[in-house]
Amino acid sequence: MEVMMKELGEIITGNTPSKKTEAFWSSEDICFIKPDIIADDGINEIVDSNEYISEDARKKARVVGKNSIFITCIGSIGKIGIASDGEYAFNQQINAIIPNNRVQPKYLAYNLLFNKPRLVAIANAPVVPIINKSQFGEFAVNIETDIDRQCEIVDVLDKLTQIIQQRNKEISALDELIKARFVEMFGTLHDNENGFEVVTIEDVCSLIKDGTHQTPQYTENKEEGFKFLSSKDVMSQKIDWTDIKYIPAELHEKLYATIKPQRNDILMSKNGVNYGVAAVNDTDEIFDIYVSLALLRPKEEIDPVFLRCVINNPETKRQFDSSIKGIGVPNLHLGEIRKTKIFLPPIELQKEFVLFAEQITKSKVAAQKALDETKLLFDSLMQQYFG
To answer: Which ranges carry the Type I restriction modification DNA specificity domain (predicted)?
Structure first.
């Protein structure tokens, strides 16, 4: 059954009590919710906040209680939170809905999560997207009218959500295990308690070069086009081939001769929020790269996987941070990459670590496969329940 949001509960747009009135912000009586504490993915249970208003501000605020649903309506559209025990005020970037007896609160939250793409699509401002209270109230969703059935659906989706969260924790724990083993074997560059040789990245690479500075022209013809990678394709410390863009053959002919990526080359993001993230090219794929990526070709004295781990190490990232260029979008120059210091353990010790990392990676791949399968089931059921 299709119903509008205003039929499923009271909708309230938040506000901010005056910052000029010190008494409104003088004590931590009521949590004050802003979009920054609501994560982009999933349904966030709101328990606490990073800002509070005092009891004096109650009459100047919009305050809701347990099971109220928050949904961001300005800027980042469709982030969803659900109130836990207690009272919560919220700012003007958030709409709240207090569900009525037609809908189970968590069921409505899952429904809104499913419909997030539709909410994003109707945001009516090209620069700062916004959904006003009237638009949100008239937003229509499909609901199951039987409350008991709604509760059954929530129970299934909650169980899958818990499994997804557990899989994510397993993957994070495996990542942390690799980092811990790295420190255990090699220590830190700052202390260098093992007395390893300290070199620069330039010392251990035969080639350090970035991709084309020419704005690419893309093609939808994947059969005749060539893969074109940018920084977004190495964000996970490996090359992600799932959303690769393609360039026409004539442009590839101009670009490929200048760099020719090879197996075991390092691809490193040069700019954006993920600058400094590196991945190993473990394929013989023919592709081209954009200026947002730097290509590093390791010499024989350093293992490519070890070099990738060193580059992704927090100590290396701090060196990048101190040398970053540009106002606005961070931009790491090749010269800064070249002179970045790293330690160079004996190759046998490097390979011992790489063997450990590869074993952990196998476990991580298995956990990731299980996670992907669970997400696929979750998405399929969301479509079945709310589509």
So the answer is: 3-171, 195-366
